[in-house]
Amino acid sequence: MRTFEIAVIEGDGIGVDVTREAIKVLEAAGGVDEAAFSWNYFPWGTDYYFEHGRMAAEDYLDQLAPHDALLLGAVGHPEVQDHITLNGLLLPIRRRFDQAICLRPAFLYEGVPSPLRDKPAESIDMLVFRENTEGEYANIGGRLYQHSDHDVAVQTSVFTRRGCERIIRAAFEKAMTRPRKRVASITKSNAQGYGMVLWDETFAEVAAEYPSIETESLLIDRAAMEFVRRPESFDVVVASNLFGDILTDLAAIVVGSMGLAASANIAIERQNLSMFEPVHGSAPDIAGQGIANPLAAILSAAMMLEHLELPRAAASVHAAVKMLLAEGELLPPDLGGTARTEVVGDRVAALVVGR
Ligand code: NAD
Ligand code: IPM
Ligand code: MN
């Protein structure tokens, strides 16, 4: 029996509900691969902020560091500005542990209709590689003449050759393992002639090393249009931090719902902490109602199982989710059903162990 120490930050809003279901499913799936988990819960988030004036303990990154993985629900509260909540908890985790690779699949499951017309089940199957530590999220800048008519804000993007190369290379390596062997790169190098041009140059250099991969480069505005017009044509997609963020909400709805969109923040150094969280946020519009779809968190947990090299456990979760969606009897409201969050989690956990 292998045991893993998992840090858990449920966070805010629906993050709490969906993480509970993910853990329920992981408890069931561990046995499939003779693995057990010990859960280390950290009470960080906006409630902690209301009590302590900060989002997490001062040494929170050090406290997280020794774990085998981190499961996170979501962070964000309507009464606190998002740049405070996110820069106080989530975003420093990605940077500190150099989680440069944000992996976000979008797959059209049987039983889940796309809002786009006539898209058959399984016809859309893309995997977005989002750069996760620099770019537009570098958080460098400043304010001048604040609170005056001359207020000026500078927000700097940072693109490094190393940063571009490692995400682009990871995308190509993954594409080599997928049947369609395509990589699309998304930039805005027509308007942003420094960072985005460095990205394009790096993409061309790395692409030359993978002659069997078919590539395309799209500008972000065009890419948004093509995600709607021909989503089935995309296989691996690689994009900067901000563009990857935007495109993965778009990809999520193209395959049916934010409630299905999983995400893994993978540390470049294997011994560093990786984090698994859904693409979605704390969804204040439905928080506290027990109706959030937990499948995005559950599928993110399956990505954690893969990362921990528990492939049979991961496969059992994927199969259970597929079955639940195909059965169509216990769907949450975002997928057109009436099943509550915990009922969906219970059913997936039962299917994992073959009940
Ligand atoms: P959101 O993803 O929370 O919600 C967008 C829409 O999708 C809402 O209508 C919501 O009800 C729906 N939705 C999202 N997840 C769902 C689920 N599992 N089941 C059913 N419906 C679901 O995005 P937002 O409204 O822009 O952001 C809300 C807060 O979350 C903000 O404070 C934002 O900063 C934060 N946020 C945090 C994270 C994170 O912690 N990783 C990610 C995104 C947004
Ligand atoms: C995501 C979220 C975060 C991001 C926010 C909450 C900072 O939208 O994980 O997609 O933009 O990375
Ligand atoms: Mn996002």
UniProtKB/TrEMBL annotation:
Gene Ontology molecular-function annotations: D-malate dehydrogenase (decarboxylating) (NAD+) activity; magnesium ion binding; NAD binding
Family annotation (Pfam families): Iso_dh
EC number in record: 1.1.1.83
Domain of life where this protein originates: Bacteria
Swiss-Prot/TrEMBL keywords: Manganese, Metal-binding, NAD, Oxidoreductase
Cofactors required: Mg(2+); Mn(2+)
Ranges of residues in domain Isopropylmalate dehydrogenase-like: 5-348
PROSITE patterns noted in UniProt: IDH_IMDH
Annotated protein name in UniProt: D-malate dehydrogenase [decarboxylating]
Taxon lineage: Bacteria, Pseudomonadati, Planctomycetota, Planctomycetia, Planctomycetales
